[in-house]
Design brief:
Layout: H1 2-19, H2 25-45, H3 50-67, H4 72-91, H5 96-115
Helix pairs in contact: 1-2, 1-3, 2-3, 3-4, 4-5
């Protein structure tokens, strides 16, 4: 159920909106907030799938980072995504893909620090 929800209900629509940027910017932000709220509700009400919901919350947050990459909101989304992936990796330490996601988020921060003037 969770995989289908992500694949058909959230991810495919986010990808359509992402490919239609910048014209779909507002629609994508609205959908990200709605999907995020839904996933938070599922995280709280269906604890047996907790790690899956944490992973999906991190993924949706990464889309928020993409949409708001040139603003302070993008940095907020990075922190939120990092928080969800970290929590998921604590609950499921053998899931390597979570560390991969955390590395991608850390890489973006390192690149920014290299090129930001002091």
């Amino acid at each position: 159920m969770a995989g289908r929800l992500w694949k058909h209900g959230i991810h495919s629509f986010l990808e359509i909106l992402r490919t239609r940027q910048p014209g779909s910017h507002e629609h994508m932000l609205t959908f990200i907030h709605q999907a995020y709220t839904l996933l938070e509700l599922l995280y709280e009400s269906v604890p047996i799938l907790e790690v899956i919901w944490l992973n999906f919350l991190g993924d949706v947050s990464r889309y928020g980072m993409f949409v708001d990459e040139n603003s302070d909101d993008g940095n907020i989304w990075i922190g939120v995504s990092r928080q969800w992936y970290s929590l998921a990796s604590e609950k499921s330490p053998s899931a390597g893909h979570l560390y991969h996601h955390l590395a991608i988020l850390a890489r973006a921060d390192v690149i920014q620090k290299l090129y930001l003037p002091l």
